[in-house]
Structure prediction request, 200 residues.
Amino acid sequence: MRSRSRGAREPPSPFRSDVDRQGQGVPHAVLRAAIPSILTSVRVLALPGLILLILHGRRPAALGLYAVVLLSDFTDGRMARRLGTATRFGAYADVLADMAVVHSLLIVFAIRGLLPAWLPAVPAAVSAAFLASSRHSAPRYDPIGKHYGTILYIGAGILIWGAGPMLRVAIWASIVAMSVLVLASRSLAAWRSSQSNLSS
Prediction:
């Protein structure tokens, strides 16, 4: 076996993280990688309490906890990219956490009579199409669909704040219209992808 010269640089190991290669150590690298996942889990952990607050009409407390949920959604992906710890698992965890929050809240609003009973099924169909089209890769966003979650979060926030009958109709009509556009956009993207594969 040849001895390594004193000035030679050790090649990077595929089993070490970028942070560990910089000499910051494995524990520090694990902590950095865990931060985005912790932020994502905040949404899921806050969800039961948020549901109870809404069902019991505790609007100020519900709004405060919902602000925490929104902050979690705003920061987890950005933190992962900033720390260089973005992964496919983390991207899916982010999406699934959003789905859990949004779909649960829509069901709660329907139970309270704020939305039609059938409405939660519409975003559920969009989520199913999203997961089906992304099952072999990282989550795939289309130009319209990437704003879909934002629309749902805004609508949920308005309903928690308090909305009259006309505004509630506007919210569910907007959700339906956006859902149709997203499904059409994803269908078109899937068709173009299949045509491209056939021609290649």
